[in-house]
Amino acid sequence: MQEATPAPRSDGGPQAPKAVSIFDVAKEAGVSHQTVSRVVNSHPKVKESTRTRVLEVIAELGYTPNRMARALAGGAVRSVTVLTSDTSLYGASATLKGIEEAARAADFTVGISVLDAGSAQRPAEVAARVSRPGEAVLVIAFDAPGVRAWQALPAEFPAAAVVERPEDGSPGDRPQVWLDDRAAAAQATRYLLGLGHESVRYVSIPSSTTRIGQRAEGWRDALRAAGKPLPEPLDGGWSPRSGYLAARSLVADPTVTAVLCGNDDLALGVLRAAREAGRDVPGDLSVVGFDDAPQSAYVHPALTTVRLDFEGLGRGCFGMLLRLLEPETAPALPMWGEPELIVRESSGPAPSLRART
Amino acid sequence: MQEATPAPRSDGGPQAPKAVSIFDVAKEAGVSHQTVSRVVNSHPKVKESTRTRVLEVIAELGYTPNRMARALAGGAVRSVTVLTSDTSLYGASATLKGIEEAARAADFTVGISVLDAGSAQRPAEVAARVSRPGEAVLVIAFDAPGVRAWQALPAEFPAAAVVERPEDGSPGDRPQVWLDDRAAAAQATRYLLGLGHESVRYVSIPSSTTRIGQRAEGWRDALRAAGKPLPEPLDGGWSPRSGYLAARSLVADPTVTAVLCGNDDLALGVLRAAREAGRDVPGDLSVVGFDDAPQSAYVHPALTTVRLDFEGLGRGCFGMLLRLLEPETAPALPMWGEPELIVRESSGPAPSLRART
DNA sequence: GTGAAAGCGCTAACAC
DNA sequence: GTGTTAGCGCTTTCAC
Asked: Is the domain of A157 the same as that of A289?
């Protein structure tokens, strides 16, 4: 009775000591394995004394249900796989973090599968990335590969997604969460316009849809509302490097005094391009980012940016899935924060106004 | 024969269409389910014509082996779970990326479980994070929680780890991979000393062990070799913010002309503290980072730093595991890059030398 | 309330 | 080479 854990292997081989099964517990507790199953799954109809006894033995033996067997037998799986692109981008990684957090709290296992450009476009390819048919799936669909995977996901998978914006009823009525990027971009643009800038240019991240992205839309909304002409957005990619490359021509134009960027990495690239072109930020040129990555407050000049609650969004996304999976017992959906403009050092009054001062 | 995929559900319910099993394939191909199993697992003793026929039927029916059943029956699991701390740090996330890449290439499913300060210290807690006993585990042990989990991991799990440096035989003879942080830090320090700096200070990341970290050791090695006194390292945490806080007193001291940082985020914090203290970088003060995050080349001043091949390291770690799991068939271990000092704008000659020039 | 029987989809060991 | 028989550990029925 003291032999709580199996003795460590004394022979040389990589022999895994057999794990304790439901039968071991049953035998030890003097009940059937079925009763143990009931206790583990907290069925209502077990006598209190029996339940206590079984729980004791479980603790004593260190029993853990085998997830594979449970799944095979048709029980609840408590496992999600998340489909995402490049996890090294701040948005995706913070969202993943939120998902993992919520999932672990709900005792879910989380799997991860990284999407790349050409991958997972057809239903079968998407399905192949999930460990078993019918397992739950979460997709982080901030970019095109993500959106394609989301749309191609076969109907038998319970799923939810984080999207740039809800597609008009595309993938059935599946749960989706998103942040109001469009409004946030409009707000940032209005802020810049309010500073006296004649216009605001936009260096964009790739859109997740065929259309122009939501952040670009918001930027145009604000420009349009202010009666300004609508310049073409500049395609900036995702990285500081691509932002730098894209912005070189832009910053060479002295009439450009304010630039909104699709993310903070791009803004970093723009900042460097501006410096090399002899533009002073914010005296000469204002630069605003998007996302508020942890570094952004510490770069020079500290980035004015839009803070986005990616972690909260990830938690919310998992919450949606849980509500789908277990409508009875799922807790209330956690809320996530609204986008928020954080003004720091990289933005300021238009040069014309400054001159006048 | 045309019914390749099961017809989509026509009723309303969330009824998962029953997946095609090995028996469906067997029946269709006119063989036993066992033969199908052999084909799927590419056993040598199957007649070529049979194999072809079975493969055809598999494609036709869209059959995918059920991983759970396979695992339950004692077959190869082809699944790893990665134990890691904070995935929002560049080092961890890049390593994870490398692991996921290699794992997907080897047709492994990857699970992820995030460690935090107090978690996963005892074997049972660690085991509980893995879906089933005996499943493979990879741990990213750059920090204390990671190392603790690695040490507490029960023997029955085939495992490998990415570590700061190999512990002296601690967790059996389990495979480990690492980067030579110590040599790299020494190199960076020598570089700074070579620039004429009287001494070099170090702002440290938390060490994964009870001792001082490897990067700090390397820094001390170089200082000692140069016959310099050994100042205390400054505890900097992981984030730009904590680096900033820690560095404020340091940069206020005008005798300090060179600072090595435990990572690039800290360096960002140090840079800001320096700027606020009126120190010019690199004229007045040299700052060197560690990791070469994608942003580091674009911040101002661009960071001199040590490039570390985290992705390669992650791939290597998975390779070690694969070799453990499948000694016969595992491909050669992929190699990863050596640390490399990248000199950019944040470091330069000691002020004394500049004056003389 | 509890137990007994059946079977989830697969691979192992053994027959032939 | 290929088929047959046993389970893997669990949850489902269905009895009692």
From this structure: no
